[in-house]
Amino acid sequence: MTAQHAKTEPEAAPRRALYAIVRYVPSILRGEFVNVGVLVVIPGATEWSLTQLPGFGKGSHAKRLPGSDGIFIGHAMTSLRDMLERMSREPWTEERLAALCAMYAANNVQLSPLRSAVATDAKALSEFMFARFVEDPTAKTEKTVRGKRVIREKVRKIFAAQHLFELGLEEDFVLPVKSRPVVDMAYKNGVWHCYQAIPFDLPERDVVDYVNAYRMVADDAQHSSDADLREGVFVAFTNEHGDPTLRDDLIGVMREDGIQVAHVDEAPAIADDIAAHLRSHDSQQPFHA
Question: At 287, is the pLDDT very low, low, confident or very high (cuts 50, 70, 90)?
């Protein structure tokens, strides 16, 4: 985490503050975004704070959406800080901050609608809001991990009963692309076949993160130099829990990206297909890239 903190004059009494979430939108048409920072200003003072992700490259939260450009985000955030430095030469007003939000409305880096809060200083509030809305979701809670584990273990037991791991199915497989993403299970039968557990009975943010991460894997594969990977099959095992509208929307997005979506109860039929595929290729040893 990095924080920009300018012209702070600490005061003991809480003051009214305004904050906006900084969002990165790789494609304006698709409308998807990831939160990359939090901006806080103190109206009537020159105080402001911008807390942002420590980096935007490989492995960053900002790279979870297709088409993400870490170099662009870095330059855009530097430009935003420069703008804030210039604007803070005069006391902040709600109107000036709203004008800044409007200025960024059509950009790939945008500011969310303004919200008010009470703070003793801008830096403390920006760091608190960053932890709440932006911090990298790779540090999952145990509840989140369990949600994924339930689906994965159910599928794994079915696959193991069919002796698929003896035939060549791999667990926690690292795909041979530059980002080296890990999928729950994979095998190769002419082309790559990948399987991932996607839970829906979790907080919305966690569900969206899981979906977007797998979409990034599929997108990496589709743009790979490996023809067998470009033609690969990507399957998401899901459950019927969670908000129905969110679930339907995310399933639709995955299917648009060429990811097949199967309910966990379909695992036995899929296991039969995998067994037939692997036996037809006489693959008696686990496949290794």
Answer: very low
**Residue 111 in contact with residue 101, Cβ under 8 Å?**
yes
CA-CA-CA-CA torsion for 155, 161, 163, 166, nearest 10 degrees?
Answer: 70
Which among 105, 87, 131 is positioned nearest to 25, based on CA atoms?
105
Per-residue CA distances from 240 to 200, 267, 288 (Å):
7, 14, 34
Contact 75, 59 (CB under 8 A): no
* Residues above pLDDT 70, as percent of the chain: 87
Cα–Cα distance measured from residue 183 to residue 204, given in angstroms and rounded to the nearest whole number: 21
| pLDDT tens digit sequence for 82-137 | 999 999 999 999 999 999 999 998 888 999 988 888 888 899 889 888 888 887 54
| Class of the CATH-defined domain 142-280 | alpha beta
Average pLDDT score, the chain: 83
**Where in the chain are all domains bearing CATH 3.40.1350?**
142-280
Q: How far apart are CA 64 and CA 181, in angstroms?
A: 11
At 42, give phi and psi (nearest 5°): -110, 105
Q: Is 145 helix (H, G, I), strand (E, B) or coil?
A: helix
Strand ranges in the chain using DSSP code E only, listed in sequence order? 2-6, 15-24, 34-41, 48-52, 109-111, 115-119, 170-174, 182-189, 191-197, 233-238, 259-263
Q: 99: which residues sit within 8 A by CB, 6+ positions away?
A: none
